[in-house]
Each structure stands twice: as C-alpha cells, then as structure tokens.
Amino acid sequence: MRIVTYILAALLGFFGVMFVVGAQGVVMRLIVGIVLMGGAGVLIYLTRVQPEKKEITHVQKIDLTGDVALEQMKCQSCGGALSKDNMEVKAGAIFVECPYCGASYQIEEAPKW
Fold it and tell me: What's the rounded Cα separation, in Å, for the pair 92 and 88?
C-alpha cells in the first residue's frame, strides 16, 4: 500500500511542477500546481507517520480444577490415548477430537461430591 501511495504522490508532484512551470502568468495554473504539490507532500507525510500494523497474538490459558493428567486421558468412544494436541477451546469450553475414531465431544468435569 505504501508503494502505491508513493507513486500517487510522485504523480501529483510531477503534475504540480508542470502546472507551476507552465503557468506563464496564469494565476489559476499556479494555484493548481501549488495545490497538487501540497497534496503530494501531505500524502508522503501521512504515509511516513502511519504506524505499522502489528500482529496480535491471543493466548488463552486454561486452569482445570482438580487433578488432570494429560497422559491419562482416553477417548470416551474408543479408549484411544489423547494428547494436548487433540484439545481445542471453542466458545470457552474444552473440546476433544479423537485422532483414532474421529469422535468429538466436550470435556465435562465431574462433581467431586
């Protein structure tokens, strides 16, 4: 986007200089040339002071209550071993997708009483 802005500013500046040089006493051409060169200067200034867009990374940490060991997790459908790579957070809930049978379900914590 910056390259396009610089090219547009260069074209405006070029035509501005052409209008000023070719004014030959015509005030309106002189005014148009000055406005075009001013527009080119403003475009260059705004492009240079515009902050760079930074990529934002969101990290969501999950605190599971109770004793949870990922090495001991097994699929509810087929009994296959699950790892942390099979877990995903959707809408604030933890979902598991089994790589063996393809079953997908939400992890629900059983009450401790």
Answer: 10
Main-chain dihedrals φ then ψ at residue 14, nearest 5 degrees: -60, -50
Distant-in-sequence, close-in-space partners of 95: CB < 8 Å, separation ≥ 6? 87, 88, 89, 104, 105, 106, 107
Query: 49-64: buried (b, 16+ CB within 10 Å) or exposed (e) per residue?
Result: eeeeeeeeeeeeeeee
Pair of tokens at residue 104: 């997908």
Q: What are phi and psi of 91, to 5 degrees?
A: 55, 35
pLDDT band at 54 (very low <50, low <70, confident <90, very high): confident
Query: SS3 letters for 24-73?
Result: CCCHHHHHHHHHHHHHHHHHHHHHHHCCCCCCCCCCCCCCCCCCCCHHHC
Q: Which residues have CB under 8 Å from 103's CB, separation 6+?
A: 75, 76, 77, 78, 97
pLDDT tens digits along 31-46 = 999 999 999 999 999 8
